């Protein structure tokens, strides 16, 4: 009754005929021959639309399916508008979380997003939960929600099938830091080209990506005002898209001054790669360092995943800054946290310091007047130094 095909058009330059990328459909309805574009490039999608159109014709419904949203086209728009505008590492993470769901849609021929239900999303997450941790499953659910919400904002969909799906309960992971002994081993067994990089992470609290993209133009080693300015650029965006100033302690100044004497002419980056430019991720270098420590000393430093182990330097910096008496607002600014709640997590690692605050507590009780034999009123005053 209906057939799908690709139109042949003539190239105005070469004069040769070539097929269009999108599929068209040709069918008869009420004696009238109709030809129109299906606006999809995938043959399976076109076949499904052809079957649906034939069913509509039999039921007396005119035209194309009422709602058809090609998941591949939505993903391409989502990639351009969202993923590619994030930092490289964050954009890669978004894609990794969304990819299993896209493969699920493709494998189950759910190519029309308008037909995807909450049951489909739950079925996908149920399969994923057998392979990944509940927290990662929740992260995937969040990205799936954002994906459908993006289609809604583009007026392609009217509902979000993932909107009412409940997240799994997860226990909050405690923040871990390196002990002084572990730091000593790390700097002893780290590759010579990585020692300065790890020390900079430890003494400044910078994120891995921020340190790798740090330029000499952002480093001020003027005596008395030593600091670095962490900038959000098109090449590397900071997590909250804001610039911030981080002062340098004596140890970090010593490391950077030594690096400055060895800086490669013409390379603007503080930490350089083997082939020029900025330093790469070098995850294997970090894993190799931990492996050498375990092989030589028997000490296993298993804090953080091998891909997030460098973040432990940032945790160590923040915790030690608070333990040294730096006020939490200042630490928040140094770390670049958008909310102080994020910084408050590090105070949970200071039980001894919290317990010491109890000695500042002073409660006074005023005795009643000697002539008062009725109900005695006790007034308590509490004076606590914060």
List its salient traits.
single chain; 386 residues; alpha+beta; hpI Integrase, Chain A; three-stranded antiparallel beta sheet
Helices, strands, pairings?
Elements: E1 2-5, E2 8-10, E3 17-19, E4 24-29, E5 32-37, H1 43-59, H2 71-81, H3 88-107, H4 118-128, H5 134-153, H6 180-189, H7 195-204, H8 208-212, E6 219-220, E7 227-230, E8 244-247, H9 250-261, H10 283-297, H11 311-323, H12 328-335, H13 340-344, H14 351-356, E9 362-366, E10 379-383
Antiparallel strand pairs: 1-4, 2-3, 4-5, 6-7, 7-8, 9-10
Task: Please characterize this protein's 3D structure.
The chain is of the alpha+beta class. It folds into three domains: 2-59, no CATH class; 71-153; 180-350, hpI Integrase, Chain A (Orthogonal Bundle). The protein contains 14 helices and ten strands. The protein has helices at residues 43-59, 71-81, 88-107, 118-128, 134-153, 180-189, 195-204, 208-212, 250-261, 283-297, 311-323, 328-335, 340-344, 351-356, and strands at residues 2-5, 8-10, 17-19, 24-29, 32-37, 219-220, 227-230, 244-247, 362-366, 379-383. It has a three-stranded antiparallel beta sheet, covered by helices on one side. A three-stranded antiparallel beta sheet has the order 6-7-8. α3 packs across α5 (134-153), α7 (195-204) packs antiparallel against α9 and α7 (195-204) packs across α11. It is elongated and about 100 Å long. The termini are far apart.
